[in-house]
Amino acid sequence: MRTALPRRVARLKDDADARPLLLGLLPHSRLRGGLPGGFPCPPHARDRDGARGRRSRGGASLSGETGSTRVSAISDHVFMPLSETLARVETDLAAGRVPVARQRLRGLISSFPYDLTLRRRLAEVYRLYGDAAEAGRWMFLEEDRDAEETAAFEARYGSPGWRMKALAWRGPEALAATPFAQAQLLGLRTACAEELGHPVDWDAPASYSEPEEQGKSPAGHSTVGGVLVGVGCLVVVLAFLAVWIRGVVALFE
To answer: How would you label 75-87 residue by residue, b for 16+ Cβ within 10 Å and e otherwise?
Structure first.
């Protein structure tokens, strides 16, 4: 297997359609310099410690999104230049494929968390849905953010830990492009550390995860498991009432 690997890699490098297979053949140490063909390599592949880029999962689910939509939109940005992916975003928006454009932008932010332009564009997409909280989420680091959107974001993500998770930032605050963004990131991390009583790190999500997050969504609602438990209890109660009413009716008959 070791001797066959270089030959397989050489063949794939000459085949543009097979470039994605290189991710399965090359270890992360080989990918740190970038993908074959000059494509940018996502940060988690360059990270020697194996820290993975993470897409945030908070916020409401928007209609029109399918599993194939997520896979296509998220994977495209890995195998094409940033400018080309952004061009596809604009094409998708012009064609009314807003969920696809949204997923492309979310994937780009996962790979390029320091690009504030991507965050601003995603906020604009969420405004098409009228989702002020998500628009405020992705404009949180911008000085010209809307106060009502920011308030909606902070209300939906009610704790500093949830907001850190929602911003999907990686690395030190100094990587932010503007002093305002740096101050916002530092202030949020400081508030989270004070609330939890221990230091927190953007690159260690477990350090800012809160115990009450288990089983709850960012808005504080029960997750699917909690809803199923509630529905099950309701069914049992209704069944008991049905048996009781039938017994009463039979008694009088």
So the answer is: ebbbbeeeeebbe
Residue 228 shares a structural domain with residue 208: no
Per-residue pLDDT tens listing for the chain (253 residues): 444 444 444 444 444 444 433 444 344 333 444 444 444 444 444 443 444 343 443 444 344 445 544 444 444 544 467 888 899 999 999 999 999 999 999 999 999 999 999 999 999 999 999 999 999 999 999 999 999 999 999 999 999 999 999 999 999 999 999 999 999 999 999 999 999 999 999 999 999 886 654 445 554 444 455 566 677 778 887 887 877 787 777 777 6
Q: How many domains would you assign to the chain? A: 3
Distance CA 242, CA 236 (A): 10
Measure CA 233 to chain center.
Answer: 33
Domain that holds residue 47: 1-52
Residue type, 217: S
Based on the domain organization, do 190 and 233 belong to the same domain? Answer: no
Please check whether residue 57 lies inside any domain of the structure: no
Specify the pTM.
0.56
What are the beta bridge partners of residue 201? 204
Residue 34's SS3 state is: coil
Structure tokens at 166: 């929602």
DSSP notation for 171-236: S-GGGSSSHHHHHHHHHHHHHHHHHHTS--BTTBGGGG--GGGTTB-TTS-B-HHHHHHHHHHHHH
Same-domain status, 143 and 190:
yes
Q: Are residues 123 and 134 in the same domain?
A: yes
